[in-house]
């Protein structure tokens, strides 16, 4: 399972597993439109660590998903710009967006490279 492999590589200690409503709120995407959706988002507004894994029903969803992820990343950068030095470092240097086949990964974590490797290995 792709989600299990990736979640094993990311500390979700400072994150909360999301319900469908939070996916809609943060990304403007409805999880029922996808075959699978896993989202861990920051527990507080002062954190930037996040993990999203989507299994697309169809590759035609790719562009919308990529735009939603880029919009979320930009929103987070705008939020922390100028005062959240540690968070901006995470968003800039420890952020991975990887869309392959029917899967999309967005991770902001110190272990983002390990998460991406687990993502690719699980596909």
How would you summarize the topology of this molecule?
Layout: H1 2-7, E1 15-17, H2 20-27, E2 36-42, E3 50-55, H3 62-80, H4 85-93, E4 95-100, E5 103-108, H5 112-122
Antiparallel strand pairs: 1-2, 2-3, 3-5, 4-5
Helix pairs in contact: 3-4
Please outline what is shown here.
The chain is of the alpha+beta class. It has helices at residues 2-7, 20-27, 62-80, 85-93, 112-122; strands spanning 15-17, 36-42, 50-55, 95-100, 103-108.
SSE order, as H and E? Answer: HEHEEHHEEH
| pLDDT averaged residue by residue | 97
**Main pleated-sheet profile:** 5 strands, antiparallel
Poorly predicted spans: none
Would you mind describing this structure in some detail?
The protein is α+β, with helices and mostly antiparallel strands and 123 residues long. The protein is 43% helix and 23% strand. It contains five helices and five strands. The protein has a five-stranded antiparallel beta sheet, with helices on both faces.
């Amino acid at each position: 399972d792709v989600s299990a492999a990736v979640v094993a590589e990311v500390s979700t200690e400072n994150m909360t597993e999301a319900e469908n409503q939070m996916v809609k709120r943060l990304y403007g995407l409805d999880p029922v439109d996808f075959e699978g959706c896993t989202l861990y988002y920051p527990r507080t507004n002062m954190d930037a660590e996040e993990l999203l894994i989507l299994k697309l029903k169809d590759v035609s969803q790719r562009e919308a998903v990529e735009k939603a992820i880029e919009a979320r990343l930009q929103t987070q950068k705008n939020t922390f710009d100028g005062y959240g030095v540690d968070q901006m470092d995470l968003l800039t240097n420890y952020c991975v967006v990887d869309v392959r086949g029917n899967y999309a990964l967005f991770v902001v974590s110190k272990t983002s490279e390990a998460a991406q490797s687990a993502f690719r290995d699980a596909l």
